[in-house]
Each structure stands twice: as C-alpha cells, then as structure tokens.
Design brief:
This protein is α+β, with helices and mostly antiparallel strands. The chain is built from seven helices and twelve strands. About 20% of the residues lie in helices and about 30% in strands. It has a twelve-stranded mixed β-sheet. The chain is elongated, with a radius of gyration of 19 Å. About 45% of the residues are buried.
Length: about 260
C-alpha cells in the first residue's frame, strides 16, 4: 500500500466510535492515509495513534504492505482476517464498547491543592513530564506539545504538575471521542471526572457530542463513563496485531516506519 494525501467516502462520518479516527486525520493532519493505488483505489487504510481503519477489497492488499501497522489495533471487516493473519505473527480480537454522553457530568470539587483547567500551548512540557504512562494519550495529536496546543484537553495540576488529563482523542464532525489518564498515586480523587467535566463543556460549546470507547473488560473505564453521564451506544470488535510476519526471518522485510 502507498501513502496518499486523503480520501473521501470510504468511512462513515458523523457517527460515534472509531470512525471518528478518519475525520480526525482529515481535520487535524495527524495520521496518514494509505491505499493500494493512488487512482481509484480498491483498498484503503487510515492510521493514527496506533489505530488503523481498513476498508475495501482484501484481494488487493499485499500482507507485506501492512507492515507499518504492526503492534497496533486494526478495525476491519471479517473478510480481512485472512490477510491480517498472513501479515502479522498474531491477531487478538478485542471486544469494545461505544458510549455517548446523554447526561451532564456531575460537578465535583477537586481537592484544595489541585487546579483543574484547560491546557494551553505552554503546558507541553508539563504533559511530557507525565512520563511513559501518559505517552499513549498524546499520540493522536503528535506528541505532548501538540496535545497541549490543541485546545482539546483539560488537566488537573498539583504543585504545578499534571497528574490527570482528559482530551479529545479523535475529533469527529459530530462526535468527539474522549480519553483520560490519571497518574498512579493520584487516582480515586475524582480528578479524571473533574477534567472530563470541563472538557465535555467545551465539546458541547463546539456543537458536538462527547463519545467514549473502551474495552468491554475495562471496568474502571466503563464505571467512569457511566458516572460522567455516558450511556452505551453499541459494540464492535477490533484486532490487536503483533509484529509483521516477515520480521526476524532470513530474507524478511525491512522494518518500516510506524504510521502515526
């Protein structure tokens, strides 16, 4: 597959859930589009932050061409399973849930030593200082500095340090798919909920609806979504994939750059 500037009409728009990834890449420029050919493609993919949407006819997808998506998460129709099986050393189905906010986030006053506010471009270093536990949440905006400058994130600050953060992970046209992270040692204080409250207010002011996706087995995430006024909308399955199957074998492919 080859990298191309953008494509229209391949993925749904204006719906909650993972489809917001394609809208996010188109709106923000973070991520890449791929296709089997530049003109009249028969199979396409859009990738951002270790997540990939794959669509079209799998007969036109060379398994080796999927190498850039290794060690990520692929959402594709079941007809793509044979080509995914040939492309990667493992495929793990992962049941996921889509939530949509239908009730306001309860207001909860944070502890007295915590300030909760919208992030600004000057907060990039503070977000980066959250360390490895928070790297994943910044990737859909490029990095910690891109997230801080996005205008789509709220943080809880303790002694000048970001200890909890909520952000728009994928920016859709009608829905914004949200995510949160709270550092160990600062959990169970309502900090994520306080950040979500501010963020959801911003999402509503932009004329969109907050959405949420999480693993079916992630009870803390499900509990937070429910507490924040989100209700179940639907379910889907995506696939956690391993390394490209050709890596580490004589004559195998050369490692490719990861699609971000």
């Amino acid at each position: 597959m080859i990298e191309i500037p953008s494509l229209d009409g391949w993925f749904p728009s204006g719906v909650p859930g993972p489809a917001a990834l394609a809208e996010h890449v188109r709106a923000t420029g973070h991520g890449q589009w791929w296709a089997d050919r530049a003109v009249e493609p028969r199979a396409v993919a859009v990738a951002c932050a270790d997540h990939v949407l794959l669509e079209g006819d799998p007969r036109y997808v060379d398994p080796d061409a999927l190498a850039p998506f290794g060690n990520g998460y692929v959402l594709a129709r079941t007809r793509f399973l044979p080509v995914l099986g040939a492309a990667f050393d493992r495929i793990v189905p992962w049941e996921r849930m889509i939530w949509v906010q239908s009730r306001p986030v309860p207001r909860r006053r944070p502890p007295g030593d915590v300030v909760v506010r919208r992030l600004t471009p000057g907060d990039g270093a503070a977000v980066a200082a959250m360390g490895d536990d928070a790297v994943w949440i910044t990737r859909s905006w490029g990095d910690a500095y891109g997230l801080a400058a996005s205008g789509h994130a709220w943080g809880a600050f303790r002694a000048g340090r970001v200890v909890s953060l909520a952000c728009t992970y994928f920016l859709g046209g009608a829905y914004e798919d949200l995510a949160v992270v709270t550092l160990r040692g600062h959990r169970r204080e309502g900090l994520a909920l306080a950040c979500l409250s501010g963020l959801c207010g911003d999402v509503a002011a932009r004329g969109r609806t907050p959405g949420w996706t999480c693993s079916r087995g992630n009870r803390p995430s499900r509990r937070l979504a429910w507490t924040a006024g989100f209700r179940l909308f639907g379910e889907y399955v995506h696939y956690g994939v391993g390394r490209p199957a050709g890596w580490g074998h004589p004559g195998g492919m050369t490692p490719a750059l990861r699609a971000r």
